Amino acid sequence: MKVSILAVGRAKPGPERQMTDDYRARFDALGRNLGFAPLDIAEIDAKGAGRDAESARLLDRLPDGHALVALDERGRTMDSAAFSTFLTAARDDGLPGIAFAIGGADGHAEAVRRRATRLLSFGAMTWPHMLVRAMMAEQLYRALAIAANHPYHRGG
């Protein structure tokens, strides 16, 4: 199954990008044996375009047939074990892919929320955009580690 992160903006060199790249590589290595394609991270260039234009560009990048999960402050929180179950159930149900959308500074327009099969929140606090990418990549890797009974989840 294909997994994508669709994110508004371009990642600049720095620790958040390094973390994202590290967890992406870990996801790819572990996912290969679990039926997951390499993690795709699509950057949506929408500088100064505004929330509606950013959201339209996110939806344009959503591959056909893929489920959409929008990271949104109004979304539901989920613990890592439940997230692992959610991700592997999508794979087991034959879903071709799932995309996790990270909006810009003003969040998602209503069009993204309506299209999303789920709204997911990392909690009530506001997180820096680039850190959310790293957190999303880490949780995707952790979900696979849980599914594979890998020691990372218990000690990482």
Please tell me about this protein's structure.
With 156 residues, the chain is an alpha/beta fold. The chain has a single domain (2-155), classed as SPOUT methyltransferase, trefoil knot domain (Alpha/beta knot). Helix content is 45%, strand content 20%. It is built from six helices and five strands. The protein has helices spanning 15-31, 51-61, 80-92, 110-115, 129-147, 152-155, and strands at residues 2-8, 40-44, 67-76, 97-102, 118-120. A five-stranded parallel β-sheet has the order 2-1-4-3-5. Helix 3 (80-92) links the parallel strand 3 and strand 4 (97-102). Helix 1 (15-31) runs parallel beside helix 5 (129-147). The longest helix has 19 residues, at 129-147. The protein is globular. The chain starts with a strand and ends with a helix. The relative contact order is 0.25.
